[in-house]
Amino acid sequence: MTQQPIAFYYGDGELDRLSRFDKVVLQADFYRREELDLLRERGVQTLGYLSLTEDVGPEAPWQRPERNPDWGGSFVHTGDPRWVAHVVDQARRAIAGGFSGLFLDTLNIEFNYPEDLPHLLYLIAAIREEARPEYLLANRGFGLLPQLADLVDGILFESFSARWVDTGSYAPWPDDVLEVHAEVAERLLGLDIDVYALDYAEDEELTEYAYRRAREFGMLCFVSDRVLSRI
C-alpha cells in the first residue's frame, strides 16, 4: 500500500490507520514508547506536538495575563529563561520517549508580540541543539522567515485554503485571503524545506478543493476537522 505523506491526529490509538502515513503529528502524552516504536518499525516518522508561545499548564511566572481566545492557553514571555528551559525539557522528554521529531506550534506572534520574534528563533535553535530531533516541522511562523528555514526541516501552512468558522462550519477563504496565501506559498516553495498544507473541511467538495489547491502549489496536504480527531 502506498504511504500517504502526512497526518495530524490529536486522539490516541489508531496505530493501524496511522501506519498508512510517512509522518504523523501526535499529542506527545497520548502515546507510549512501545506504540511509537511500532510506528517507527512500520516506517512512520512520529512528530510530537510542542507549543512554543502558549502555555496550557497551571499558573507560572513566564505567563502573560492575556489568553488565546480560541483555545484558552496563556500567552508567554517567550524569552523568559524559565520558559525556554521548560520547553526544551518537554522536547527532550518527547524524543527520549520515542518520538522521531517535533511539531512546533503557536509561532504566529508577529502581530501581537513582535518583540519576541528573536527570542522565538533562539528557542527553536535551542530545541534543535538540545533535543536533537530527526525532523522539525514548524506551523506557519511566517514572521520568522527566512531565518526559520535554516532551523527546521519543513513548514506547515495551516488553513491554507479552507478554515473553520465561528458557527462550527467550514468554508474556503475569501479570494483576497487566498491571494495573500498564494504569495506566501510561493515564498515558501523558494526555500530549501518541505512544505505542507493542513486544511479544515467536512464535506467532500471542500475537501477535494483543499487537496486540489495544495497540489497546484506543490504542497503535500492533509484535511481534517477543527480538533484533528479524524484520520
DSSP strand content: 25-35%
Distance between the termini: 16 Å
Q: Specify the CATH class.
A: Alpha Beta
CATH architecture: Alpha-Beta Barrel
Rg over CA atoms, rounded to whole Å, is 17 Å
- Figure out the total of helices: 6
Instruction: Give a count of the beta strands, DSSP E runs of length 2 or more.
Output: 13
Please tell me what the overall shape is. globular
Q: What is the helix fraction of residues, given as a range?
A: 25-40%
Biggest sheet character: 8 strands, parallel
What are the low-pLDDT stretches, counting only 5+ consecutive residues below 50? none
Strand order of the largest sheet: 1-2-3-7-8-9-12-13
Number of domains: 1
CATH topology name, in short, is: TIM Barrel
**What are the secondary-structure elements, in order, as H or E?**
EHEHEEEEHEHEEEEHEHE
